[in-house]
Design a protein that fits this description.
By secondary structure, this protein is an alpha/beta fold. It has 2 domains: 157 residues, Medium-chain alcohol dehydrogenases, catalytic domain (Quinone Oxidoreductase, Chain A, domain 1), CATH 3.90.180; 141 residues, NAD(P)-binding Rossmann-like Domain (Rossmann fold). The chain has 10 helices and 16 strands. Strands 3, 5, 6, 7, 8, 15 and 16 form a 7-stranded mixed beta sheet that branches. A 6-stranded parallel beta sheet has the order 11-10-9-12-13-14, sandwiched between helices. α7 links the parallel β12 and β13. 52% of the residues are buried. The mean pLDDT is 93.
Amino acid sequence: MRAMTIDNFGGPEVLHWADLPEPEPGPGEVRLRVAFAGVNPADCKTCRGMLARFFDTRFPFVLGFDLAGTVDAVGAGVTAWQPGDRVFGTSRQGQGANGSYAEYTTAYAAMLARVPDGVALSEAAAMPTAGTTAYGGLVDAGGLRAGQRVLIHGGAGGVGSIAIQIAKALGARVAVTCSAANADHVRGLGADLAIDYRTADVPTALRRWAPDGVDIALDAVGLDTLLPRATELVKQGGSYVEIETLESSASKDRVADAARQGVRIVSNMVAISRLHEHLAALAVLMSEGKVRMPALEIMPLGEAALAHERLARRQVRGKIVLEVGGSAK
């Protein structure tokens, strides 16, 4: 099979074409014919070796967490899926197996969901990591409830675009930080307030909308850009949710100081064990037309390096998916 592989860690330039054997599904796994592979910041970090401490990488290695395609074969004990089923979910890259930048890959049967009728495979491939991160961060880590006010920091990106829609679907009011150029975009997704982070003092602008602070702040930017002001943003009894893979990590002292002021600083990783539930919930929201990926760019698999370069430069609104071997239907 054809795949984009790496033979060593490095930047986008280490990605190259290779011919590899088709993988065989083990117990509890399925083999998938990949139609589209989603591109995530975590792919870029895996390429550079930044996630090597989490799993054993064996070269040549195929990147790619997210995918959508059709079931090609099932391993022992798998009864939920049959060959030909249209599914989306995550590969086993997180366990050190080859990922989705290939014509075929394997996935745990439990980490797949059926692509709803009327949803394109290309759109479904953009959902797994960004969507489960948004859902888990808001619902599990943040405890989102109807009627609450939510801030999404970085609303125009992949996680933020989906988080806006999830929060609105579950009955919340939503404020978003974004550039002025993306204000209409986030409002089109349902945001009640768009704050230009380049020109406005975010806590001051937010307080005019939510005088006591928001119930939940989901930081989809990271890099500690708003973390130092968490207690200015979030009301007493509320939560500031970090996404660990975005290089944002509150110190124990900062967590303790926020707690004394009645604000929880919590990692989205507290919800990691429920990813399969989040994937299923996303499928329902997609089937109801409440969540979609409005800004989607499809690039050929052979341009994976270019996709990584653009992601690193933060030149992406929404998501990029790589066309591997199937139509968008």
